[in-house]
Amino acid sequence: MFRQVSITQALRNIPWLLELNQQQIFRLAELASIRQFAIGERIFNEGDREKDVHILIEGQICLEVTIPTQGCLNIGMVDPLDIVGWSALPPVVRQRTATARACQPSTTVAIPGEDLRKLCDEDHHIGYIIQRRLSNVIATRLLTTRLHLYDLLIQSSRPDTDSNSFS
């Protein structure tokens, strides 16, 4: 569906960008590219240097973190019209905090983080819209991660009945 749509049209269809005027959408579109990912393809890995911010247009992306002694833990899903790769935007964070992998064939609008930061500095209205959405994404991911952590702590505090049984 989105393969035939221009970047400008894709950006116009994102509800949280509706407050931007035509010129602001055009400025975002100049920086952006459409990226497609096959099922299982990694968009980026935890610990990678920051690069692009992705707005998911179609598909679904799984977010995973590696926990020592626990392995890889799914910490959430990214659905269409949401941001992944937000760590490319804050001025201090310079590496990915999770791994992002396409759970379904996925299409994103990819915007280089450094270019988007500059645009947000130049046009504070664009910056406000992006940062407002970003703060919601970060808060949601923090809550989800905390809930997963609580679940791990509860599971680790339960006695392992299998290791105590004799078969």
List keywords for this structure.
167 residues, alpha+beta, Jelly Rolls, 4-stranded antiparallel sheet, 8 strands
Q: Could you please describe the fold and organization of this structure?
A:
With 167 residues, the chain is α+β, with helices and mostly antiparallel strands. The protein has one domain: Jelly Rolls (Sandwich), CATH 2.60.120.10. The protein is 38% helix and 26% strand. It is built from five helices and eight strands. A hairpin with a 3-residue loop joins strand 4 and strand 5.
List the helices and strands and how they pair.
Elements: H1 7-12, H2 22-31, E1 33-37, E2 42-44, E3 52-58, E4 61-67, E5 71-78, E6 83-84, E7 99-102, E8 106-112, H3 113-122, H4 124-157, H5 161-164
Antiparallel strand pairs: 1-8, 2-7, 3-6, 3-8, 4-5, 4-7
Helix pairs in contact: 3-4
